[in-house]
Amino acid sequence: xxxxxxxxxxPALDEAGERVEFLVTMTTHVPEGxxxxxxxxxxxREAENSARLAEQRRLLRxxxxxxxxxxxxxxxxxxxxxxxxxxxTLAAMPLRIWRTDEVTALAPHPNDPWAGAQxxxxxxxxxxxxxxxxxxxxxxFLTEFRVTPPQRTDEAAWETYQQADAQEAESAAALAxxxxxxxxxxxxxxxxRPGPGVSLVLGLWRAADADVVxxxxxxxxxxxxxxxxxxxxxxxxxxxxHNTP
Length: 245
Prior knowledge:
Layout: E1 4-6, E2 20-28, H1 36-55, E3 59-64, E4 73-80, H2 83-91, E5 99-108, E6 139-147, H3 155-177, E7 181-187, E8 199-207, H4 210-219, E9 226-235
Parallel strand pairs: 1-5
Antiparallel strand pairs: 2-4, 2-5, 3-4, 3-9, 5-7, 6-8, 6-9, 7-8
């Protein structure tokens, strides 16, 4: 099967001159009739390649979303200088011969716990690379928030919204201190564009279960203006964060 990638353009570097992060959903379709030996050999080479990409800090995290019978899909957090650089990385991955990739370029959200100088602190690791705390039974979740503000013509509603928006930074900081909020991103572009006036925010969270995540989301100041999608994640065997000592 021919491989394809939907790459969304973004600036080569962010405003701080850092490499750009990309969220990549990778879906593999093994052609019918492919031998088990061939599949095993390609998968082994894929694992070796993922380890090299992690050493180069091109692959930060790797997860598996919920899968149906026969589905083969993973979600990766990559870094690259730009979309073309990312495409070279993806094209060199052994599983690419059977895979389609959906790419979203990311920018740090202003409330991202690890944005700016904190991301570069000496001796620290970026939270996007930290291992999920399976020893405590915690799970990671990917969230998609679509925020629809009220019309500015409704002055009372707009003022209430503005007050809630101003409270989001404090709420995010508190949730980060509690170990629940790991990352927040603003997609530079997304495969599914939000409607006019709607802002899209992606988040990485850690919690005991989906009920805890739902409770956290409901506590957010902007919850009345958000529609929420939550994807539970399981650690991929080749996840660099999972394998970090």
